[in-house]
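Final report, Chapter 2: Outcomes

The project's central promise was a pipeline that accepts a single protein chain and returns its three-dimensional structure in a standardized token representation, suitable for archiving and comparison. That pipeline is now operational. To close this chapter, we reproduce one record exactly as it appears in the project archive, with the input sequence first and the structure output second.
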Amino acid sequence: MDTQADTNGSVRARDSDGSDRYKWIALSNVTLGVLLATLDGSITLIAMPDIFRGIHLDPLVPANSFYLLWMILGFLVVTSVLIVSFGRLGDMYGRVKMYNLGFVIYTLASLVLTVDWMTGRAGATYLIAFRIVQGIGAAFLLANSAAIITDAFPANQRGMALGINNIVGVSGMFVGLILGGLLAPIDWRLVFLISVPVGLFGTVWAYLKLEERSTPKRARVDWWGNITFALGLILIMVSVTYGIRPYGGDATGWGSPRVLALLGAGVAFLVAFAVIESRVAEPMFRLPLFRIRAFTFGTLSTFLSAVARGGLMFMLIIWLQGIWLPQHGYDFTETPLWAGIYMLPLTLGMLIAGPTSGYLSDRFGARWFATGGMLGSALSFFLLTLLPIDFPFPLFALVLAMVGLSMGMFASPNRAAVMNSLPPQHRGAGGGMNQTFQNSAQVLSIGVFFTLMILGLASNLPHTLSAGLEAHGVSATAASGAAHTPPVSVLFAAFLGYNPIEHLLGAHVLGSLSAASRATLTGRSFFPHLISAPFSTGLHEAFLFAILACLVAAGASLLRGGKYHYVEPAPARPDADGARGNGVAVGAATGAATFDPGARELARTTTAEEQHAR
């Protein structure tokens, strides 16, 4: 096998027959790792009812909402916080080494999650703790995956390769819903156990076949940068979990002293982080990379698209599990699986558009594909607002397919454009920065979507619930008490596919009703029909927010500029009069004197350290 340096400073190995098989090995292994990492972010969502039944903990009790939220968000929070640090470690000590370590941690944590012998809050705490460990492994995988692919593929094929990897990863979130719905009713431990043999296979495969194509550059660890960034991000994300819970007489807790203190402290730590990063010699967050226009606006587009998309899955699950499926004859215990199945058009749309748009962006650039994808997403969200709560499924499936096509059309070209714009020695850190913005935006999006939904429910639900209960023989006192249940509890019930009427009224009140009234109240249609109108109000507000985020993302994408690949300029040679050239002639050493129009911009957009190295 011989080696050949590519135009971006990476070393590509070729077999003796001239083919390059390694890039496909790298793509397939890394895509498997990303699929596992993203799949586990969603597989537990659908499995939540079975998990809580298995550990004998009632998630609808207000005191237990903490465990429900952190079971959902803990994995996502830890990956958001650690991805940049682990990407930087990949640049320093080897991307493949860090990626392989992630596979080991992830697989071991998945195994440990299956042996939770405790019940109640102790059992829930155990699961949350090892979900966080699992998230650490996933962060190693996600932080270095894009850089490994970028190192393995030439610039004219990265859009296609990163498109496949990115879309399989995003689709994993929706595939996880189906797997969770299939496995959890058999045994909730299977949702974690399924990752063990696949993770073990991926670990052995990665250690045997992946090659280090980057040139690690040892540097000092930016401890203060890491600490302030982690604390700032964690505090802000924790504030989201408290912000969507009731406080005092308010439906949400955004005005509570605790949330305001968490937000203020989080912002203060992030400001301190920015100051530290601008002064240390070896920063974790490569702020000079934001001088690269394609990277800056690509990352901003990533953040805004994730803000628009992050809460979508939760809204669709609530819509299907809590309302539409029960109204169409599905038992509440069956709704998790069927919710995942009915969302398949969205996944199929992504799988079609992602690799296709990535391949085309290799030829024509990312700008118009990514911008068009965000405009199509905005239109898709608008069409969702036009659908009735009790929609005809063919029309719903068509709109979901359009959402998937639009998001796939954006995600692959945008990811490739971001990675192509980065210098080889900073692909780990830069890719991690981009992924951090995406994951953080998803957590913030969940907070925004849930807040808008809760406010929509709070404005209409109390009167609707009280009148509906009284109409079926419930006393005014009991109906009024149930009507003042925090809207977030009703939202969680719909999200989990529960019928919460028994929780709201209690066995004593239900026992005092006639058999017909009791059967009606606890049946499949009463609760979904009751919350349909209040849910519709909140849903429209959430989708309007998503439309706005998509339009701003489209504007940011448009500003990224034309097709841009980072190219290492050739060393300048002395001019005839002994002076050095300006560094814009690529191939000067061979006499080709081919003018590179991007070289001047490289001198402006790269860091002082890199310019000095040249």
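Archive annotation: The two ends are 29 Å apart (CA to CA).
This record, like all others produced under the grant, will remain available to the consortium after the project formally closes.
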